[in-house]
Design a protein that fits this description.
Mean pLDDT: 97
Order of helices and strands: EEEEEHEEEEEEEEEEEEEEEHEEEEEEE
Shape: globular
Helix content: under 10%
Strand content: 35-45%
Strand order of the largest sheet: 11-12-13-14-27-23-22-17-20
Radius of gyration: 19 Å
Number of helices: 2
Distance between the termini: 18 Å
Largest sheet: 9 strands, antiparallel
Length: about 350
């Protein structure tokens, strides 16, 4: 078990950015940079003992400064979408950054994916804590929010992210990580043949702007039924309005059960790598990289549409608009507590 630190690059203002590699010594290692809390590498041994990097990434810090698609990044204050960038809290209307047409996506114009985070190494553990203080009014969000994200690799061959946050007034807080997974290796192309199972009986359909309509529908008899393992690509081009509108999946699933539980299991038959996703969150966005491409990627690889999948654990998108959705409200004096684990078995 070890932590190594190296200079990764320099920001335009001269701030040095560092890469931290967490290695459990048993075949799992993660590299994280303190710009954007970005997971740049996730190394896992395959069935033949060969190391595979199972997350997509950019080639350099300069490329991450223009990280279209949020590849590998920490997302906040509010993951996913807020319709018209507006919500009400305690009778007040707040307007936040509308960086996706008329809507807010993943925290606005300069969300947590574009921040430089302070780093603390944990003595005796393969873990680091990334911390950031988001001041009152940043991107229009109310209250000063103090955030800590604990990244670790465990003896159980898991990469784990634990999020904690407190605020000095009522606010919204919905954090996640936007890693793009390809269990055949980041350079291996389409994930359509990789197998996915999602522990969800229901999903939330979207309107034409990829915004949940407020409905909660059964997955039964639809392309959204992943209750039994199936190839990701089996229904990705189905003649089904919710699929055709987005070129694949970009939807929130209602994770069954409560507490810390398995949300999904994914597997590459080619490499034999199986990844369990465990979380305490109520929802999870499945995104099948429907608009992937462009930019310079690590290893000079050209990424293409459906070359990865994202499993973004979260409160429901646009939940401040719908009282029946599990939402992102964080009260003053309370602590936001979110755990997600990517366990390789």
């Amino acid at each position: 078990m070890s932590i190594t630190k190296k200079l990764y690059g320099t920001m335009p203002d001269g701030t040095e950015i560092f890469a931290y590699t967490l290695d459990n010594g048993k075949g799992v290692a993660a590299e994280i940079i303190n710009y954007g809390g970005i997971v740049t590498k996730l190394l896992v041994a395959d069935k033949n003992g060969k190391t595979q990097d199972v997350v997509l990434g950019r080639a350099s810090l300069e490329e991450y400064l223009d990280n279209d698609g949020y590849i590998g990044a920490a997302i906040g204050r509010h993951a996913n979408r807020i319709a018209k960038g507006e919500f009400e809290l305690r009778g007040r209307r707040f307007c936040v950054g509308t960086n996706e047409g008329a809507n807010s996506l993943h925290g606005g114009f300069e969300g947590f994916d574009k921040k430089v985070w302070s780093v603390t190494e944990i003595p005796g553990e393969t873990a680091i804590i990334l911390s950031y203080i988001s001041l009152d009014g940043e991107e229009g969000f109310p209250g000063t929010l103090s955030v800590a994200m604990r990244y670790s690799v465990t003896d159980e061959n898991a990469f784990k992210i634990e999020y904690r946050a407190t605020a000095d007034s009522d606010t919204v807080c919905n954090l996640t990580n936007h890693s793009y997974f390809n269990l055949g290796g980041h350079e291996s192309g389409s994930v359509k043949d990789q197998i996915l199972q999602i522990n969800a009986d229901f999903y939330t359909p979207n309107d034409s702007e990829c915004m949940p309509t407020g409905e909660v529908l059964s997955v039964e008899g639809t392309p959204f039924d992943f209750r039994e393992p199936k190839p990701i690509g089996r229904d990705i081009a189905a003649d089904f309005p919710q699929i055709k509108a987005f070129g694949g999946y970009d939807h929130n699933f209602v994770i069954s059960g409560k507490g810390y539980r398995t949300a999904a299991v994914a597997k590459s038959l080619e490499t034999g790598i199986t990844m369990q996703v465990l979380t305490n969150q109520p929802g999870m966005q499945l995104y099948t990289a429907n608009m992937l491409g462009g930019g310079v990627h690590k290893g000079d690889v050209e990424y293409k549409v459906h070359g990865a999948f994202c499993l973004e654990t979260q409160a429901f998108p646009n939940a401040m608009k719908f009282s029946h959705f599990p939402g992102p409200l964080l009260r003053k004096g309370h602590t936001y507590n979110h755990i997600t684990e990517y366990r390789f078995v």
